[in-house]
Amino acid sequence: MSAVRVLIVDDSATIRGLIRRVLSKDSEILVVGEAGDPLEARQAIKELNPDVVTLDVEMPHMSGIEFLEKIMRLRPTPVIMVSTLTQQGAAISIQALEIGAVDCVGKPDFHDLCEKVKAAARARVRPLGDHVAQAPKRPNGYRPSSRILAIGSSTGGVEALLTMLSSFPENCPPTLITQHMPASFTTSFAARLDRLCAPQVREAVDGAPILPGHVYLAPGGAAHLEAVGGANPRCRLVEAGPVNGHRPSVDVLFASVCAQFGKRAVGVILTGMGADGAKGLKAMREAGAATIGQNEATSVVYGMPRAAFELGAVERQLPLGAIGPAALDLCALELKGAA
Prior knowledge:
EC number: 3.1.1.61, 3.5.1.44
Number of helices: 11
Organism: Candidatus Viadribacter manganicus
Keywords: Chemotaxis, Cytoplasm, Hydrolase, Phosphoprotein
Low-confidence stretches: none
Number of domains: 2
Strand content: 15-25%
Domain Response regulatory: 5-122
Helix content: 25-40%
């Protein structure tokens, strides 16, 4: 396999040099050029035809968002956004991921940049305006049962979760989500989901009761999200080391939901690189829970869903637009003799 060709776009020569040094340590990556602003970058993309572009959020002459829109409209290319770990930087990065950026990293923590670049090179990018259709809104009269829904996602998860949750009614089943995302980004993402979706979406806090009509998003980078409490379930944030290289980890969430709810749970694994969540989803299925995996055609990166499918953890594999309605239907089913 030939090396992944990368173009670095950032107005700071210092940051460009740092990114180049990090990427150059990986023999499977070749930095083919640098650009200090979108005007230079536009010409460099035409001349160098990179496999992946790293793009600064804030730049002169044209914002990173404006330039990303042009890339995705005129020459769809895998893009990784490089942002400061501020509230404003996080909010802009979430917007970029909605537009079509594959992933984001926070300055100056580039420890996983090489893996993200290689995953981005394999990602499916679509022209702007040609993204997966939003799932249909659930009609009024939806009645959830006592089931709980657990969702895991990573690369491509912003678009996937927006698509899935857009179908949810105000009284959706209690929903827990672990999305791999840098620290501080999940606050902005939860607020974005809350504005765009009918249920209440919040970043999970330790001890919060798990209730219908609420969606709880694991805080990025800080702790693992678990469900505990038996008949009166609540969120628990566990400050432990990474699992499968991630904190929060999808496997940790799925394992806790499996232990607390057994067959009264529904598990969903969405787009993402790696295998986090596969073992936890397998345990959920073996305990009688219903499980769904995103199919390859609609996954930005068919890593986590593939790992779960190959392990036998996925009961049904569905395109993204069908996952939300299917999960809601499963969560409306009452189970006889449920534990």
